[in-house]
Amino acid sequence: MDLTMRYNIHQTGYTPSQPLLKSESVELAKLERNIRPLKARLYVLCVPSNSEILCHLSISCDACGREIIHTRTLCATCINADLSDNVDLCLNCIHQTPSRGKFNHKISHILVQTDRVIHDYSLAWIIREANATVGRVKSNLRGLQEPHQYDAVADAHGTSHTTSEMLCSCCGKAVTTPFWVCVECALDVYVCHDCNSKREPPLPDSGHEISHILAQVYDNKEIIEVDAINLRFQSMERRITELESNVQWRLESLESNINTRLSAFEEVLHKLSAQITTLTTRSRLRP
Hints:
Number of strands: 13
Largest sheet: 6 strands, antiparallel
Number of helices: 7
């Protein structure tokens, strides 16, 4: 079933995909020949169909061009203020740096990862929270990584620094950059790169859920454009709120107009009913 599902995902142009190796293709062909038809139909029915695969509204990866399924990774830096366009990546291309139009994606940009289909209104909040959360975590990371708190081995080799107070919510080990932070949890919850790549479940007492939206902390450098980005999305939220108010006002106006017309129609019906009753009475009184 796993081989069939991987084959179907690759053939339909979805990503992330794992094309079958030559040996796996031979094995799948052998299984298709040797398994009895009744059992084969049962196994095929167990393989998720295209309609059961989570797709993100026909969003394609800007690196490989294939349609993204399951996990979507979008850049919180390469995005228009009106949310009309942005850079999206699949899990296979998360380390790629595609350029498209005015966007020039860099590996150090803030990435947002989600397993859910998100609406534009929610996206505005998610982008703002991701930028604010990553900015706060980077500030904390710089404070915790003062020279006297550096890990000696990491500092000697110039690699990512470890902090004893930032632990992965899945494996319980200290996180090193790059790592991920939850956008939805009330307190900052961290997921190391390895656990996120393997989709490891969180520890029971972490309060974090694997379905939560994550933002990547690539390094501890200060984010220069956070305030500007937040202002743009606050403006976008205000515009959406004004649009909702305008739509609500128009609906109420339309409802009032309809009620007025219905009342006038009912009045006409009452008059017609009275006239019909009068005519019926007169016809009965005639000899």
